[in-house]
Amino acid sequence: MKPQEIEDLSFKIIEKEVGDHSFSDDQWPIVRRMIHTSADFEYIQTIRFYPDAVQKGIQAIQRGCYIITDTNMARVGIRKKEIHEFGGNVSCLIAEEAVAKKAKEAGSTRALAAVDMACEQMEGGIYVVGNAPTALLRLIELIKEKKANPAMVIGFPVGFVNAAESKDELMALDFPYITNKGRKGGSNIAASIVNALAIMAVEAR
Questions:
Q1: Pairing state of beta strands 89-92 and 126-129?
Q2: Which SS3 state, helix, strand or coil, does residue 127 take?
Q3: For the whole prediction, is pTM greater than 0.70?
C-alpha cells in the first residue's frame, strides 16, 4: 500500500472504532490525527479546546506565522511543506548557545530560557510545548504579564512532575489553547496537532 492509502485506511479504522462523537468539524481532524499518531483513544476524553482556538491556529498559519517548539523532536515532526506554502517558519531555540548561557546564568532549565528568548518571534504565532512543563508554565507567566502574545498555545508536556498541573494552569487561562487533562502528551502529539492545523489551513484557502 502507498503511504496515503495507509493513512486513509487508518482514519477509516479510527472513525469506525470511535463511532458517534461530539467534536466539531474543525476539532475532529485534530483528535483523529492525535489518535493516528499514538493509537491512544483516551485523547477523546482528555483533549480540551479553548473556543475558536482551532480557527486561531489556522488563521495564524495562513498569515505565515512563526511556529516555535520546545523540542527539536516536535520541530522535526511538523510538516514543513504546508507551513512554507504560506511563508511560515518552524523553529526551536532549545539548542541555541545563547539559551544555554541564559539558563546557566539564571539557574533555570533551557526550556524555560528558550521561551524567554522567543517572546518577539512568537508574536501572532503558535508556541508548541510537547515536553517541558517548565516551558509551558513560563509561557503562561509571560502571557499573563502581556510580555508574550502568540495567536495560540499547543500545550502537551508529558511526565510526572508538573505536566498535568501546567496544563491545568493553561486551561485556567483566558487564552486560545489546545491541551489535554493529565500526564500524557509528548512532542509527537504536539506536532500532530500542528500538522492537522496546517492541512486544514491549506484546505480552507
A1: unpaired
A2: strand
A3: yes
What cell was used for 178? 489546545
Give the residue from 39, 27, 113 showing the smallest Cα distance to 70. 113
pLDDT tens per residue across span 28-72: 999 999 999 999 999 999 999 999 999 999 999 999 999 999 999
pLDDT digits (tens, 9 = 90+) for 107-140: 988 999 999 999 999 999 999 999 999 999 999 9
Give the pLDDT confidence score for residue 205 in this predicted structure.
Answer: 86
Task: Measure the CA–CA gap between 65 and 83, rounded to whole angstroms.
Answer: 8
Topology of the domain covering 47-203: Rossmann fold (3.40.50)
The residue annotated as part of the active site, out of 36, 48, 79, 183, is: 36
Burial 47-62 (b: 16+ CB within 10 A, else e): bebbeebbebbbbbbb
Has 21 been annotated as catalytic? no
Count the residues in the chain: 205
Q: Which of 41, 63, 42, 33 is nearest to 154 (CA)?
A: 33
